[in-house]
């Protein structure tokens, strides 16, 4: 580990990033760090222990860095608070053995191993040679992951059976008889490297098949009967990790219900503009076939690209001040075998790889637009892309840590949900279709708060709820409630529910994060009165870098 004597907190944070990249080259690829592109992380118990030791070492040095001359500057203090909070939360997760049961449809190591290939450059023969080398690293990386899961079972730390079943199903898709995902990925590679690429893809495919078979035939039997929910103690630990604060979970659960009732009333009014007297979700199902639809996978990608390009053109100079590198964002189709939810990947630190939004098609070729508009304001512009690309732009002024690996999920997802609301406030959701779709997206996030906290803590459903009042939440009730109050198809709902079971505390950060952003904006507006400038506030807020919900409202209020 590097000598970190006589450094300030921001310098220490960036030393940590460099040393973390050495242990996790996937992070290096996302950041565009040289020397990362041929390797994969060690997910074995020993590899996980090395990352934990790096966190402990950094925390031990942080107290010294905070005593260095200049460490009392606001930027240094902000970075120090974030670094301490993040590393402490990560160590709590590690020491509880949570990484030894990391089976998830969206956030597990096996997902990371595949996803990194989708952002690797493919322009030159050297790029493809790096891809071949990384493919050859897949077997060892997945073997380490399997060793961690096996140790977890030995220590009485099983994953939930639903997570395992979903992961096996997704790996089946990667290993389709029509051709594995890895074989398809290398197919466009140069003919001069054809044999090398095909051999490497076959090795990676074999490793995935071996993991799939072990999960299905060995691990699933060993975790059969384990609970899918995590209980209050584990949930509180994960909620701190995802949200950057120790939440009052009962207050958050009540807030979810208050938002549910508010949004449902508004959805009834909006649906009445389309089908008078109809239930909002019956109206959304009507729009699936009778509303505005984009036909074709490539056609919807082009449509989403145009939506983001138009948003950049119209928002720049009016509601935001965007630097040229931020004005480039690409709409992409997610690889097969992805989970159902759209997602975003941030640009590399030098912007050589732009920010990208990803749409999982789930086999569809026809795409109703009623919820795509709001969703792409969330994933793209002014949502994730504007925040995370702005962070890249100011990384040198803050620290790479604050603008990359130190990100707090609830801050980022809260901003993206706030961005949807902002576009509604600005009048961009100007048809009954798109506004009902926006409200359905908002309702999705309120329902997440209710069922994520409710089922993991097995809370009681309130007496005034329009669904099984007085009963206690189970995953089965959560899925039924979700389906009743969502315009999404059953396969999406099922995939989302398994996601919540596998990442407790993450899904609540959208609504709780949005509440923090709104509270910060309201406080700043009240303090400045007629002098409040929304454009300046937005740009200053986007340039703060990562903050947990402990600090977000206070920092936003002072802008």
Q: Which properties best describe this structure?
A:
globular; two-stranded antiparallel sheet; 2 domains; single chain; 24 helices; three-stranded mixed sheet; mainly alpha; 559 residues
Shape: globular
Distance between the termini: 37 Å
Q: From the alpha carbons, calculate the radius of gyration and give it in angstroms.
A: 23 Å
Number of helices: 24
Overall mean pLDDT stands at 95
Order of strands in the sheet with most strands: 2-4-3
Compute the number of structural domains.
2
Helical fraction: 55-70%
Strand content: under 5%
Helix/strand order? HHHHHHHHHHHHHEHEEEEHHHHHHHHHH
Low-confidence stretches: none
Main sheet specs: 3 strands, mixed
Structural class: mainly alpha
The strand count comes to 5
Describe it.
- The chain starts with 8 loop residues before the first helix and ends with a helix.
- Helix content is 62%, strand content 3%.
- It folds into two domains: 9-233, no CATH class; 237-509, no CATH class.
- The chain is mostly helical and 559 residues long.
- The strands form two sheets. Strands 2-4-3 form a three-stranded mixed β-sheet.
- Helix 6 packs parallel to helix 10 (194-223) and helix 8 (161-174) runs antiparallel to helix 10.
Concise synopsis of the structure shown:
The protein is mainly α.
SSE order and pairing:
Blueprint: H1 9-23, H2 25-31, H3 45-65, H4 74-95, H5 109-118, H6 125-136, H7 138-154, H8 161-174, H9 181-186, H10 194-223, H11 231-243, H12 249-272, H13 280-290, E1 293-295, H14 297-315, E2 329-333, E3 343-345, E4 355-359, E5 366-368, H15 372-379, H16 384-393, H17 400-403, H18 409-425, H19 432-457, H20 475-484, H21 490-502, H22 509-528, H23 534-542, H24 549-557
Parallel strand pairs: 2-4
Antiparallel strand pairs: 1-5, 3-4
Helix pairs in contact: 1-2, 1-3, 3-4, 4-11, 6-10, 7-10, 8-10, 12-13, 12-19, 13-19, 14-15, 15-18, 15-19, 18-22, 19-20, 19-22, 20-21, 22-24
């Amino acid at each position: 580990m590097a000598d970190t004597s006589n450094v300030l907190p921001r310098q220490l944070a960036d030393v940590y990033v460099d040393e973390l990249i050495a242990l996790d080259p996937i992070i290096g690829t996302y950041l565009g760090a040289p020397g990362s592109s041929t390797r994969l992380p060690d997910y074995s118990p020993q590899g996980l222990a090395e990352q934990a030791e790096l966190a402990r070492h950094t925390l031990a040095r942080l107290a010294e860095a905070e005593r260095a001359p200049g460490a009392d500057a606001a930027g240094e203090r902000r970075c120090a608070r974030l670094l301490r909070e993040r590393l402490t939360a990560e160590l709590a997760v590690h020491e509880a053995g949570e990484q030894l049961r990391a089976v998830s449809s969206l956030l597990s190591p096996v997902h990371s191993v595949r996803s990194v290939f989708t952002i690797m450059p493919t322009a030159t023969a050297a790029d493809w040679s790096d891809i071949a080398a990384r493919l050859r690293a897949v077997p060892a990386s997945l073997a380490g992951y399997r060793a961690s899961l096996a140790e977890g079972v030995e220590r009485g730390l099983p994953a939930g059976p639903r997570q395992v079943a979903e992961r096996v199903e997704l790996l089946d898709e990667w290993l389709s008889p029509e051709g594995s995902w890895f074989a398809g990925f290398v197919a466009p590679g140069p003919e001069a490297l054809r044999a090398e690429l095909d051999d490497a893809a076959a090795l990676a495919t074999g490793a995935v098949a071996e993991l799939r078979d072990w999960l299905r035939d060995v691990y699933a039997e060993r975790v059969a009967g384990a609970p899918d929910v995590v209980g209050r103690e584990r949930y509180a630990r994960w909620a701190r990790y995802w949200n950057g604060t120790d939440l009052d979970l009962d207050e958050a659960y009540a807030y979810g219900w208050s938002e549910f009732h508010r949004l449902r009333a508004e959805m009834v009014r909006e649906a009445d503009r389309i089908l008078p007297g109809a239930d909002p979700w019956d109206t959304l199902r009507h729009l699936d076939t009778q509303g505005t639809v984009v036909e074709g996978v490539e056609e919807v990608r082009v449509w989403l690209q145009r939506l983001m390009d138009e948003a950049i053109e119209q928002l720049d100079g009016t509601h935001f001040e965007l630097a040229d590198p931020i004005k480039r964002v690409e709409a992409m189709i997610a690889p097969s075998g992805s989970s159902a939810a759209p997602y975003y990947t941030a640009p590399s630190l030098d912007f050589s790889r732009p920010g990208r939004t990803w749409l999982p098609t789930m086999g569809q070729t026809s795409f109703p637009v009623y919820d795509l508009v709001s969703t792409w304001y969330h994933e793209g512009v002014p949502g994730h892309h504007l925040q995370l690309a702005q962070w890249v732009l100011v990384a040198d002024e803050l620290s790479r840590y604050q603008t990359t690996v130190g990100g707090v999920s609830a801050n980022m997802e809260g901003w993206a949900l706030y961005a949807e609301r902002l576009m509604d406030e600005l009048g961009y959701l100007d048809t009954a279709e798109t506004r009902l779709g926006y409200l359905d997206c908002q309702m999705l996030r309120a329902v997440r708060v209710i069922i994520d906290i409710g089922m993991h803590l097995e809370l009681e459903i309130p007496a005034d709820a329009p669904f099984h009042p007085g009963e206690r939440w189970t995953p089965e009730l959560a899925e039924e409630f979700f389906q009743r109050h969502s315009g999404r198809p059953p396969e999406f709902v099922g995939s989302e529910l398994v996601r919540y079971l596998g990442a407790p505390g993450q899904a609540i950060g959208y609504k709780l994060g949005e509440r923090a952003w709104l509270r910060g904006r309201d406080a700043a507006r009240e303090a400045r009165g007629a002098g409040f400038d929304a454009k300046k506030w937005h740009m200053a807020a986007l340039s703060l870098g990562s903050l947990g919900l402990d600090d977000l409202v206070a920092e936003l209020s002072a802008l």
